[in-house]
Amino acid sequence: MVLLKERYNWCILLLIGLGLLASFWVVRERIQVEDKAQQVEIALEFHDLEDLAYQDGKNTDELLIQFKNAGMTTLVVEEASLERLIRRGWANLHRGGELIADEKAGLLTDSAWKDAVQSGKIRPEWFYLVVSREDIAKELSENVEYRLGKDRVELLQIGSRSVVGVRLWTPEKIMEFPMGLFKEDLDRADKAGVLLIVRPVNAINPTPEYNHFLIQKLDNRENLTGIIPAGVEMIGYRNDRPMNDQPEMFAFGEWLKSKEINLGMVERSDQLQFIDQAGLMPLAAAMDYRAARAYTIYKEELKKLTLPVAIARWPLAVKERNIKINLIRKFEKLQGANTLTETHENYIRSVAAGIQKEGFTLGRAHIMTSYHAPNWALALMMSGVVAGGVFLLSQILRITGKFQIALWGMGALVFAVPLFIKDMTLIRQVGALGAACLFPPIALSLVMDYWQKKAKEAVGSLPGRIVQAVLLLFIAGFISLLGASLMAGLLSDIRFFMEMELFRGVKLSFVLPIVLSILLYVSRFSLTGGKDDDLIGECKRILQTPTTIQFLLIGFVGLIGVYILLGRSGHTAGFGVPGWEIKLRSFLEGAFFTRPRSKELFIGHPALVLATYFWLSRSPRWLQFGATVAGSIGIASMVETFAHVRSPLILSVVRGIDGIWPGALLGVLGILIFHLLYLGWKRWGESFRG
Questions:
Q1: What domains does the chain contain, in order, with CATH numbers?
Q2: Nearest-5° angle of CA 598, CA 602, CA 608?
Q3: By CB neighbour count within 10 A (0-12 exposed, 13-18 middle, 19+ buried), where does 263 fall?
Q4: What predicted TM-score, i.e. pTM, was given to this entire model?
Q5: What confidence score (pLDDT) does residue 128 get?
């Protein structure tokens, strides 16, 4: 009873309970925010559409309607390059130096060009674009003027032709140079009845005039839902100024916000945060996070994928990563259809059907409300995490109740009180990491309490041991999910939902629960044949144990296991996924609402079921210990799942449930196998030894 009082301080438990209540309140609000953002866009770049029409001999506008009927909601209009203007028949290119050389050599027969060269209008370092239409010429000259400056563009009349002269810093890239957004391209979306996203490029040393010019071009377009700046920086950003001195960029953001136009943030190829664009994060914050996560399969990767694999990517991205804009790019090769048009019509139709099957609707993207958990709730949740740490410490070490309260007080002063005063991202991240690392071992400690309670009782029947083992797994999973609630509550913030801020310590959240579980086991049960509940004595005996080849081999295998576990976690480059596992994952995706994590389903949960069976069956301690350590992986992984804050909270809960019940069944299967092996050994083991 004394030990029970030392380990269970009701004040500490009450503090954990208060933190959990605060987390439940915050989590409920988070779910409401997520539930309101269930509509997404399927977008296709106009240049891809234009290329498909060109390759298959189709009419661009008719093809746009065809793809709209297949499920496409949005046309993405990028700035047209000079190469594209020439292909359309809008412009023709002449180099100033070549015109001058031809005139001197007597090769220039056009009298209007000869007059222009002889009068000095043509300069050797300039490019001259003969534009087929006067309205296009005027728009082109304005685009370049506001982008580069008045001294780098000139609108000329050469005979009856409209000519735009341009001087670039990098003339070798003239064909790739973005020549601006054109009204005719933007109007196509209106005519087809689809939504519009534009991808403008920032000006060189942007001015308020450039902002005004771009806004005037885009204003009053009711179908404009988003802007995804192209290039390496936000519209209005100047690289000669610090981030807090970007008036043009923030003014443009204010206009976007006032018009309820979303800022598109394109996910990186490793699916972590966003492509690197200067000013992206500050601009999103200034817009009160009126932003939408966008996903695309990059062209280099798309070349390696088959159509079915590519199709499967999109519903998963929408469901699991809070993707609101699906930027579909075209395949370069046929994918089992007669034409590229048919290939992409099938592609878009299948993606739309897959997204709708997951319960989402298609249309103007719904973004999340700018939610921030209140300070009082953050402080209570952090207090609960600190109390959880004290509780776990009391499970490992025999510390008095007064000392526990003192430890909690110091921890709360350092971590909880500052959150009550001010929202501090780093402290929230530390608290979330604490919840992820502490509560799985806490759950395991309660399982061990039950084992100790049953230590002096009879072994019991096999069905009884199976029932107890499965129940303890579900109890441990439930307690771990309480820690996940604290973790999710502390990270409940639009910055984490959008993945502008990240959970820190993914690797540690895998390793530390295992280390703490080992300490828990050693503090309760002796592996060396000594007295139980004697941590110091057990550690001394372990350190005094002679090293053997067997011991080194076991340690080496354990280190390899941890290395593989870490290599398979997170988004950093690690171990590749073998082909057979990819097929298994695809099967699990189809069999469950959301694919359970392999380390839970196939390792952790079955091992924890076996650990209880081994204990109740009085199996060797080394067998109990190994299964317990492996079992800690599953419940730790359940909590770590909630570190992916961009995923809907309900999805993380369902993922945990979808892993635990089949894991329990596999554990029961393991028990039956071990029991049969044990019966066989009892019957035939003596004859083998003889």
A1: 2-34+370-530+560-684 (no CATH), 37-79+184-362 (3.20.20), 85-175 (3.30.200)
A2: 120
A3: buried
A4: 0.87
A5: 93
